[in-house]
Design brief:
The chain is 65% helix and 3% strand. By secondary structure, it is an all-alpha fold. Helix 7 packs parallel to helix 9 and helix 9 runs parallel beside helix 12.
Length: 283
Amino acid sequence: MKKYIILLLVISSCNLSDKKEDMVKGDIKVEKKVLSGIDSMHVREYIEKSFQSPMHSLEHQQYLDSALAIVPESAWLWQQKAMPLYKARKYQLGKPFLDKAVEYAPEKYLEYSGFMRCIFSKDYIKSISEFMRAKKEFGDGYVMDHTYNFYIGLDYLQLNKFSKAKEFLLLSKEQQFKDFPNDLPQEASHYLDWYYLGIADFELGNYNEAIASFDMSLMVYENFAEALYFKGRSMTKLGNEEGVEWEKKAFENADNTINEDNVIYEIYPYQLFHKLNESVRPK
């Protein structure tokens, strides 16, 4: 979608092949430190070998360690050590490395750390703290296709602080309306923003408002199972017997679940239709 063009810088920081190429071209410059030709050659060699090894292997980590012995202030190398560990659900092992990345380059990795804590390690209070710091020091922005306010909203949802969740999800919506004024409302704000705003209202008992948000989500992602389900639940709460049919339709579309890239590693908040949920599997 065109709205995510502004995210290319963030996304490129997570693109391994592009970053590897950046690191191996000419003399390597890390945190304003220009390496000698010999050190540059060794770092290039270690990075090349790290990417020739399986991402989750011990060898991959050891080659990164060798590179870090030469350039210990490389935030990117610390992030590269952390990322495979988080994807392997070894959060406690990855956390010190991600903290190092934030220490050396907060302008790049503070938002990324907030995202990892929200979606991966479920450290919601710390995630809120990091995103609030990022907002204060660098302004509102986007990471992994979504606003900082979006992730803060998810953090608060998972802490059962539904009014605070709605507050930040509304901020996220307004931020996107401002950033993409020529888009239709259902497209300017991401379909997951509409979905989670609906969830916040559902939890607050604002069922008509919840239905309106779920409908906006469904205008972009037709047959989105979770939105169908919670729309049905909201209708039932209002005494509308047709809500049962919407819930039934949700189960019929169980494959149309949240489709974020990282859903292959983690279950997202209020994601009902995932592989660990036996009730949604075909009988």
